[in-house]
Amino acid sequence: MSIEHEVVGWSDATLELDDTDFAYAGKFRLPSGKAVTRDTDTGDTVAVLSFSPDRADPDGVRVRYFTARDDLRGEGIGSSLLGFASDRLLERYGTVRISVNNPYAYEAAHKAGFVWTGDTAGLAELVLRKPAEDTDTGTDERYVEGLRRFADRDLTDGEEGFVRRKLRD
């Protein structure tokens, strides 16, 4: 499969996604900025994310949701889209933040160049940012520290195995 990424709207885009193929599909029906990944052979959307200005930081933007089609999870498409979109967002904003609630999203954000801030939000979501600030020394140690936060949680068997493998690497 060959893919391409695109920002499809900066503020008021909506997308209709199949609830059986995408987690959080309903969230993408709400107006916000959107970026998508499409299969260039079929034109099908295979990953999507939404973003909006960060109410707490006038020079910042937040990625609100991102997901890959269920049958393509684990293929690196979500982290690729997150990297592409965050680079485009940094052309307009000083900081991109994302809050994640599972180790898979944490790993995808890390691969896309995000660094855990050491902060949490909401229901124990880890807050990551891009670019890293000058005070973010020891980003490898910070990554492991964030991953350990997930190890202390009630995880599915798959998530637990994933975290154990990552902590051994």
From TrEMBL:
N-acetyltransferase domain location: 24-114
InterPro entries (alphabetical): Acyl_CoA_acyltransferase, GNAT_dom
GO molecular function annotation: acyltransferase activity, transferring groups other than amino-acyl groups
Highest taxon of source: Archaea
Protein's UniProt name: GNAT family N-acetyltransferase
Database matches in Pfam families: Acetyltransf_1
